[in-house]
Design goal:
By secondary structure, the chain is an alpha+beta fold. It has one domain (about 1-255): Porin (Beta Barrel), CATH 2.40.160.40. It has two helices and twelve strands; from the N terminus they run αβββββββββββαβ. It has helices at about 1-30, 230-235, and strands at about 35-50, 55-65, 70-80, 85-95, 105-120, 125-135, 140-150, 155-170, 175-185, 200-210, 215-230, 245-255. The chain is globular, with a radius of gyration of 19 Å.
């Protein structure tokens, strides 16, 4: 029953993403709007893990110009065995700060907005401040800090930091090798437990994409996943895996322009 439910969940996610893509492209074409926009399904992914039904999705969309841009970002899935299905949605305004335009090696955009998490205990809303863009050596960077009101441990605020780096190498006309690493640190483990600092998580993965046309790229790869600090201790006490290498299979879809 668990495997069947997991497959149904992934199918619903795929259908939802396909519906969003169809709606956006249809409206843009019918309106004849030349305003820059982009929608990328960066991950729609199954993971071979000790966790039953492990999967991830990561979708980003934007509309606007390099001077002012509206971002919509969604990510979620089930990454660890003790976690409920965890989903986050961010609505952000992007603008390149003037104070680093003299640095030609950086192409970063400051993001300000809100983040809402569902599937956690309890659901939470955060103020978000971060940056996204391209670093030297064509490294794609995302970094965000989050500030929420209250926590289960009785603190006045609930805070977190999330960093992500990604680098791709073209291997011929259709193959692309992508290296991606992510670090996440929170003042409280809001995903699985009601006590302890966390989640403290570190992951790194290598994925080989095969481009079918200009939009679709299925991929295979592997990801290393590690829990740290109180998150590691609590997960180990619950009999969960705290350090694991996983095979992954997924799909990347690109509509419009990349940032």
């Amino acid at each position: 029953m668990g495997v069947r439910q997991g497959r149904c969940t992934i199918l619903r996610l795929a259908l939802t993403v396909a519906g969003i893509l169809a709606m956006v492209t249809t409206r843009a074409q019918s309106a004849g709007d030349d305003r820059p926009w982009g929608l990328t399904v960066r991950q729609l992914e199954w993971q071979d893990s000790s966790t039953p039904e492990a999967y991830m999705y990561d979708v980003q969309g934007w509309v606007g110009t390099e001077r002012n841009r509206l971002w919509l970002r969604g990510e979620g899935g089930k990454h660890t065995s003790g976690a409920r299905y965890d989903n986050r949605l961010e609505l952000l305004w992007g603008h390149p700060p003037r104070w680093w335009r003299w640095m030609d090696t950086l192409d970063l955009e400051m993001l300000v907005g809100m983040r809402h998490d569902r599937g956690t205990t309890p659901s939470r809303t955060y103020f978000a401040l971060g940056f996204t863009g391209i670093l030297p050596l064509d490294i794609r960077f995302e970094g965000s800090g989050y500030l929420g009101d209250g926590s289960q441990m009785g603190d006045d605020v609930h805070t977190g930091v999330r960093l992500q780096l990604e680098r791709g190498w073209d291997l011929g006309d259709r193959w692309t090798l992508v290296l991606r690493g992510e670090r996440e640190i929170w003042s409280e483990d809001h995903v699985r437990y009601s006590e302890g600092i966390g989640p403290w998580m570190l992951s790194a993965g290598l994925r080989l994409h095969y481009r079918i046309g200009d939009r679709i790229a299925p991929y295979l790869g592997a990801e290393w996943f590690d829990l740290e600090s109180d998150t590691h201790s609590l997960a180990a006490a619950a009999g969960e895996e705290t350090n694991e290498v996983r095979a992954v299979a997924g799909l990347r879809v690109q509509f419009g322009r990349e940032r």
